[in-house]
Specification:
Chain lengths: 264, 190
């Protein structure tokens, strides 16, 4: 690629970028985000002139025309601002903002009332109002039905999850059995090292809250299937491993929910 | 004799004009120029002048407000005008704080409206909604500021376009003497 072609390509890219920036600035001014004099229109026009020889595609010429159009809109806004500033209505927005901040609500209301001439009018039923009311009435359900509807609102039904999903979550299959066995071994190890009763909260505590919840979830299986026993003494929960588990859910077992706080 | 005939002719037209101006038929009160021309006649402006004289005794007046043109008045063969006039009956004088409260206005709502209108005028009639809410939030808190802006939009004192730019609404243009408001605001002692 020759040097000339290279510099032309660079000119094209930077030209497109600069024109887009000009258009964006002009749009922001039209939306009253900036003062119209924020943009140096002459500089904008010079930018258009500088990049005009580079344009090749139809889109480039459209962008050029669009930027010129937006610049002319800024010129119009500058003209309006100058006219406005020379009118009796002109006040610096910052000055008004400061006044509003410092004036009491009562004083503000009084100022408004001195320049306010409210409209008078009499309201009565019109054809439009009647037809709107009729539509509303026709669409309105009897109150019993509206209450009934509210009473029977229910969430989403449970959905099926296949084995692969459960395997992925680590709560099914070989991975699950491995984790259970490793946790049971850990429990046995702690028990054989001299602890008669292992504190439930200390045992389930993991590196993070998620990890703690996972350990608690696996422990619940150990207890349900007879690998461990859960002792509840007053406020204390303790785990005791069973060396020869039944591997069956105990008959007459009861559910014992244990909420796990964040700080656990 | 001729004088009596003129008077009765006008009294009939006066009634029709005041009915059009006072009784609300659509969403907005008042009457459009073409409605008055159609129902009162071509000399409706003379009728309104005479009506103004009568209303002045009651501290009321007929006000003409130019608003952006709606599609309703394009007539065949004539070029469509860019703006149309609407006539309202407004209070000629002003209300006191107690009277304003009596007609259902809270002081903080009036204060917020005053601040919003003055701010928009200082911004040449247009400003982003966030700026207006920010101004009001300083005095009324963020949640109330948003609620107040919604109230002013609903009642027609302010308008908002799709880009979230706020402007003065038809009701501000009809009811508020902006020149007086800005002068009073500049002069107001803190």
């Amino acid at each position: 690629m020759t040097e000339k072609a290279k510099s032309r390509r660079i000119g094209l890219a930077s030209g497109r970028k600069e024109l887009k920036e000009v258009v964006e600035t002009c749009d922001a001014i039209s939306e009253r985000k900036f003062n119209p004099f924020f943009l140096d229109v002459k500089l904008g026009v010079d930018t258009l002139r500088q990049y005009f020889p580079y344009w090749e595609r139809f889109e480039d010429h459209c962008l050029d025309a669009h930027a010129l159009n937006r610049l002319s809109e800024v010129v119009r806004l500058q003209n309006t601002q100058l006219k406005f500033q020379s009118s009796a209505l002109y006040a610096d927005p910052e000055f008004i903002g400061r006044k509003v901040e410092r004036m009491s609500e009562k004083r503000l209301a009084e100022v408004f009332l001195q320049s306010w001439h409210p409209l008078t009018g009499l309201e009565q039923l019109t054809q439009e109002v009647i037809s709107e009311a009729l539509n509303y009435w026709n669409l309105l359900l009897p109150i019993e039905e509206r209450w009934k509807k509210r009473g029977y609102e229910r969430g989403r039904d449970p959905q099926k999850a296949d084995s692969s999903t459960l395997d992925g979550l680590g709560i099914h299959g070989e991975e699950f059995s491995k984790k259970l066995t490793s946790l049971w071994n850990e429990l046995l190890q702690q028990y054989s090292s001299g602890q008669k009763q292992i504190d439930y909260w200390q045992f389930i505590k993991g590196q993070s809250h998620t990890h703690t919840v996972q350990r608690a979830y696996f422990v619940s299986f150990l207890v349900t299937y007879g690998y461990a026993k859960l002792h509840v003494e007053q406020d204390r929960l303790a785990l005791i491993p069973v060396e020869q588990p039944t591997m069956k859910a105990a008959a007459g077992a009861v559910s014992f929910p244990i909420p796990i706080p964040r700080e656990a | 004799m001729e004088n009596t005939q003129t008077k009765s002719f006008y009294s009939d037209k006066l009634k029709r004009a005041i009915h059009l101006l006072l009784f609300r038929r659509g969403k907005m009160p008042g009457a459009r120029e073409w409605e008055l021309k159609e129902k009162v006649g071509k000399n409706y402006e003379q009728v309104l002048t005479q009506l103004n004289q009568l209303l002045a005794e009651l501290d009321l007046e007929v006000k003409k407000v130019i608003e952006p043109r709606s599609e309703a008045i394009a007539t065949e063969g004539e070029p469509a005008p860019l703006e149309e006039a609407r006539y309202f009956v407004t209070l000629k004088g002003t209300l006191g704080l107690k009277e304003a409260k009596m007609i259902g206005w809270r002081i903080d709502n009036l204060a917020a409206l005053s601040a919003s209108v003055a701010f928009l005028v200082s911004k040449q009639g247009k400003a982003p909604r966030e700026d207006v809410e920010k101004l009001l939030a300083h005095k009324f808190g963020r949640w109330k500021a948003a609620t107040l802006v919604d109230i002013f939009l609903r009642t027609g004192y302010l308008e908002e376009d799709d880009a979230g730019t706020m402007a003065l609404g038809w009701r501000t243009r009809s009811e508020v003497d902006l020149r007086a408001l800005m002068t009073k605001m500049a002069e107001a002692k803190l």
